[in-house]
C-alpha cells in the first residue's frame, strides 16, 4: 500500500511537469456562460483501438470522452461535459457534447500525431441571487461550436518511484481552435443578439501508467478568446484530472512505454 503522503508527492511531481500555472488559474472564478470541455487526446495508433476517459476539474466540471479507430489512420471521437453547481449567490448549469472525426499516424522515434475536426452543442444557464436569496438575474441560452484540433506526443521516458514501484510518465500537447456561439440568449426572459467568440486552447498533458491499460492523466492549459465580450469569455482555464483506459491497438508502442 502506497502511503498517502508519497502518493501526494507523486501527483504533485506529475502536475508540475504538466503545468502548474494553468492549474492555479482554474481557482479563479469567471462569469462566462461557457466552460470549455477538455480537448480529447486519445493518441490512437492503429485500427480497432479504443480510448475512454472520465475526468473532472476544480469547478466540478465532469467530462466523459471516448474515441475509436474505425479504420487505419481514421477515428471518431466524442465528449460529454457537464457542470451543475449551486452557491449562495448563484446556480450554474452547463451541458455540452462534441463529436469529431480525425486522422492519426505514427511518426519516427515512437511519436504520434492526430488531427481532428468536429462540432459541438449544448445548453447553459445561470441564476444570480442577492443576500436574501432572491433571484436578481437569470441568463440562459444554447451553445454551438466548430473546432479543429492537433494532438502530438513524443517519447519521453521518465518515472516516479514510490515504494517498490516505478510509474512511467509520458507527455504531450494539444492545440485546439474553436468558434463558439451563444444562441437563443435571454436575460430575464428578454431575447438578446447571438454572441460569438474564437477561442484558442493550448494544453499540455501528463500521463502516469498505473496498471494494465489504465493511466492517470493531468491536463492543464488556458482558453484564450480573440473577441472580448461580457457573457462568452474565455477566461476559464482548462485543468482536468482523470482516469483513462486504452484497449486494443498497439498498446506496447504507446509513448512513455
TrEMBL record:
Domain of life: Bacteria
Protein name: Outer membrane protein beta-barrel domain-containing protein
